[in-house]
């Protein structure tokens, strides 16, 4: 029915009776990337369905009413839909050892993710103008929203990394919030190369997470990288 | 130990989870004037803060989900739990849009209530509540928003709807299933007991 690009994940790890996973999002990294990376790190094969943006075709207009909240990403598991990027990521992560080793660690993963969301709500007022997604006074927004939100959020992440000492944000092993933060750092560093220079642990963390073999492979092969 | 302002706000769902489960907790309420002195000791500079055997946990939804998991209010399967999370996060997006008017009602900010109703509240409502009404209708045999048993997103929505009914009566007249689901939730004996005896607050 829809014609949009679809790529099968390269990461087949188990050939037992597996559920069928389809992820629906736009053909960008955006809010979908943390979900794609969580699926990739969990070794789950999935159909990475990418809809053209509304300006480029009617596919999203048609699909929108079929989503629970009129938004994407949406994960379909054996035909059943789950909306909301964090709900999806947590659903996959918690079943594949990527959500913390204890209930309390899982809660800290959630807390850092929600703190990032608060940061991103503010920061994106600047970032989306910088990236050309909307109109605005870039310089003013950087001063009023970009820098203050950055200075509120990244010291917390820097401190958290120093405290765990493991190279991961929570506990001793990788969780989905590591993927979320590393992706955000990559986006910010690409847009404004020196913006995170005051946060060396944060920059090291991004390098470390993106060097994890399954993540490195995902990044190398994702459509955005090959354009 | 739960530390929050002396009001319902972003702490109430945690209190309700404790009261529903019968697990004792220190309900540490900080007067507004004393808040600045506490801010620096909070991991993320904000409240609510949960302490579990002295170990801190910030961020309201992380706290609610943690307590809900401990006490059995998180959903009856991983899929249901994911839907609880999704409805909660969708609610959060809606709340971020409407909160500016609510803060005026609570007395935290100045604003033209009528103008904000038209420009802010009604658009936010009209984006979110039709979807919530459908979710409630699809699940109406169960009397909850998600699944067959009480979850923390039921409490989250019921508390917010109570605020709307108090400050903006009639605001949800077009969403009868949401209202009837909230009514069912609020009549759960242990919850009703807490609601009847809890301290009053504007927020």
From TrEMBL, chain A:
InterPro entries named among the record's database cross-references:
Glutathione-S-Trfase_C-like, Glutathione-S-Trfase_C_sf, Glutathione_S-Trfase, Glutathione_S-Trfase_N, GST_C, GST_superfamily, Thioredoxin-like_sf
Q: Which residues form the GST N-terminal domain?
A: 19-100
Which one of the record's GO molecular function terms can you name?
Answer: glutathione transferase activity
The record's section on CDD domains has: GST_C_Sigma_like (cd03192), GST_N_Sigma_like (cd03039)
Q: Report domain GST C-terminal positions.
A: 102-227
- Specify the domain of life of the species encoding this protein: Eukaryota
GO terms of biological process kind: glutathione metabolic process
Q: What is this protein called?
A: Glutathione S-transferase
What is the organism field in this record? Pristionchus entomophagus
From TrEMBL, chain B:
For this protein, the record's CDD domains field holds: GST_C_Sigma_like, GST_N_Sigma_like
Q: Which UniProt keywords apply?
A: Transferase
Q: What is its EC number?
A: 2.5.1.18
Q: Which GO terms describe its biological process?
A: glutathione metabolic process
Gene Ontology molecular function, alphabetical? glutathione transferase activity
Q: Which InterPro entries match?
A: Glutathione-S-Trfase_C-like, Glutathione-S-Trfase_C_sf, Glutathione_S-Trfase, Glutathione_S-Trfase_N, GST_C, GST_superfamily, Thioredoxin-like_sf
Per its record, the protein catalyses:
RX + glutathione = an S-substituted glutathione + a halide anion + H(+)
Which ranges carry the GST N-terminal domain?
1-75
- Indicate the segments forming the GST C-terminal domain, all copies: 77-203
Residue span of the signal peptide, if any? none
PANTHER family in UniProt? GLUTATHIONE S-TRANSFERASE (PTHR11571), HEMATOPOIETIC PROSTAGLANDIN D SYNTHASE (PTHR11571:SF224)
Q: Which family does it belong to?
A: Belongs to the GST superfamily. Sigma family.
* The protein's name: glutathione transferase
Task: Give the species.
Answer: Pristionchus entomophagus
């Amino acid at each position: 029915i829809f014609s949009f690009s679809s790529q099968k994940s390269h990461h087949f790890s188990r050939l037992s009776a597996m559920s069928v996973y389809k992820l629906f999002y736009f053909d960008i990294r955006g809010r979908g990337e943390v979900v794609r990376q969580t699926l990739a790190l969990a070794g789950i094969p999935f159909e990475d369905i990418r809809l053209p943006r509304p300006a480029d075709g009617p596919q999203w207009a048609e699909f929108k009413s079929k989503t629970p909240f009129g938004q994407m990403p949406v994960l379909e598991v054996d035909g059943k839909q789950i909306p909301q990027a964090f709900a999806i990521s947590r659903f996959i992560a918690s079943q594949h050892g990527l959500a913390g080793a204890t209930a309390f660690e899982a809660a800290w993963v959630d807390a850092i993710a929600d703190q990032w969301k608060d940061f991103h709500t503010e920061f994106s007022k600047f970032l989306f103008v910088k990236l050309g997604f909307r109109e605005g006074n870039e310089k003013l927004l950087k001063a009023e929203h970009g820098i203050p939100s950055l200075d509120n959020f990244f010291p917390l992440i820097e401190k958290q990394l120093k405290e765990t000492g493991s190279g991961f944000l929570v506990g001793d092993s990788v969780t989905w919030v590591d993927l979320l933060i590393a992706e955000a750092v990559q986006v910010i560093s690409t847009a404004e190369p020196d913006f995170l220079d005051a946060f060396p642990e944060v920059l090291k963390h991004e390098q470390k997470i993106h060097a994890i073999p399954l993540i490195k492979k995902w990044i190398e092969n994702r459509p955005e990288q090959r354009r | 130990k739960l530390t929050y302002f002396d009001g319902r706000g972003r702490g109430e769902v945690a209190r309700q989870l404790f009261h529903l489960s019968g697990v004792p907790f220190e309900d540490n309420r900080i007067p507004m004037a004393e808040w600045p002195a506490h801010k620096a000791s909070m991991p993320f500079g904000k409240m609510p803060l949960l302490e579990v055997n002295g170990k801190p946990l910030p961020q309201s939804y992380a706290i609610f989900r943690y307590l809900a998991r401990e006490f059995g209010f998180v959903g009856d399967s991983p899929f249901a739990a994911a839907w609880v999370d999704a409805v909660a996060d969708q609610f959060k997006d809606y709340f971020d849009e409407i909160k500016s008017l609510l803060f005026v009602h609570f007395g935290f900010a100045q604003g033209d209530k009528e103008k904000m109703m038209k420009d802010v509240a009604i658009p936010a409502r009209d984006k979110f509540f039709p979807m919530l009404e459908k979710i409630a209708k699809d699940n109406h045999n169960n009397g909850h928003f998600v699944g067959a048993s009480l979850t923390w997103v039921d409490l989250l929505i019921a508390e917010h709807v109570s605020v709307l009914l108090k400050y903006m009566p009639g605001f949800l007249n077009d969403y009868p299933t949401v209202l009837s689901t909230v009514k069912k939730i609020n009549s759960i004996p242990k919850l009703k007991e807490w609601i009847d005896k809890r301290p009053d607050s504007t927020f």
